[in-house]
Amino acid sequence: MPFPETRARRLRDHPVLRRMVAETDLSARRLVQPLFVKETLTEPAPIASMPGQRQFGPDQIAAEARRVADAGVPAVLLFGIPAEKDAVGTQASAPDGVVQRAIAAIKHEVPDLAVIADICLCEYTDHGHCGVLGEVAGRTTVDNDATLPRLAAAAVSCARAGADVVAPSDMMDGRVGAIRDALDAADLGHVPIFSYAVKYASHFYGPFRDAAESPPAFGDRRGYQMDPANADEALREAAEDLDEGADALIVKPGLAYGDIIRRVKETFGACVAAYNVSGAYAMVEAAAARGWIDREAVIREILLGLRRAGADLLITYWAAEVAGGESRYA
Ligand code: PBG
Asked: What's the 126 CA to ligand 1 centre distance in angstroms?
């Protein structure tokens, strides 16, 4: 029906109705807070390129997790920074590794908080790549198949330590299947895999590499992470991971990749999580610190945009803040 019978403003101009008819929201149940635990820290250390975020020591991580849970956030995504790094990332699968100890401490102190363990080797290798290195056609690169058992071992050790979910973020081919087989063989068949099925080789990860102390010592990650020019390929990646047993799919970054979130969601109808990564966080914080944008309004708009694109879950450094201040972000 045309104007004047139809007036879109009727529902918009009434504040109560406007809120009632909102199609998406930022309810706390959909949020995941990333946390960094660093083995050598005895007190929290600020992350310069991510103002407001900190690395925590093994003795402080459970208290921080408690704070996140008290704000209403149901899950944390854990990254570990070990004291010792080596070529194969031994500490990623060490039973007494920093992330394994953090998982156990959090599950002990805050049992109702879901702990998602990020599974990757880049924080644990001395060369900073996400897998084990090898020679292919005369070039040094990440050896896909040699990496799979290392990732599977890391996933099993995190699950044994009490992780509720494992989230492989390495982008090796076949790793979801390898992890699924290893979990099942270890009597951990109940542990779901949230796969970073669609992870781009993004410059939005810059600040994270300070936070996780994981920049590659040479080259870049374009040999395993996806080319930002591609979208159809994202659907093939997602299909493969679902075939191999992924229980939910992560699209990363989220900002600038709304089309990918939408296509993955519509094509597969699976649970999709969008990761609002460190660079998107840092840009907002930097502009807000200069008074150039309205910080909370912009945070809300970015996160709503990811939900509107089709994300069921949002992994965001703002999770605890948004959950704790739901009225401001509603
Ligand atoms: C690596 C990993 C990265 C992020 C999460 N897991 C960085 C990378 O691939 O270089 C990025 C997260 C962020 O930027 O917030 N395993």
From this structure: 16
Prior bond of 4 cis (ω within 30°): yes
Delimit the domains of the chain by residue range: 26-249
CB 324 within 8 A of CB 71: yes
Cβ atoms of 119 and 158 within 8 Å: the answer is: yes
CA of 136 to the centre of ligand 1 (A): 25
Distance (Å, whole) CA 243 – CA 79: 26
Query: How far is 122 from 33, CA to CA, in rounded Å?
Result: 20
Q: Which residues contact 131 (CB under 8 A, 6 or more apart)?
A: 121, 125, 142, 143, 144, 146, 147, 150, 151, 170, 172, 224
* Ligand 1 midpoint to CA 14 (Å): 42
Cα–Cα nearest to 116, from 125, 126, 127, 107: 107
Q: Which residue has tokens 């089309």?
A: 259
Residues 230-266 pLDDT 10s: 999 999 999 999 999 999 999 999 999 999 999 999 9
User: Could you tell which of 169, 196, 200, 222 is best to mutate to test the pocket of ligand 1, judged by most ligand atoms within 8 Å of the CB?
Assistant: 169
Pocket of ligand 1 (CB under 6 A): 118, 120, 122, 130, 169, 205, 208-209, 221, 277-278
Where does residue 162 fall: left (phi above 0), alpha (psi -120 to 50 degrees), or beta otherwise? left
CA distance 252 to 265: 14
- Tens-digit pLDDT profile for residues 151-176: 999 999 999 999 999 999 999 999 99
The model carries a pTM of 0.97
Q: What is the CATH number of domain 26-249?
A: 3.20.20.70
List beta partners, residue 56. Answer: 37
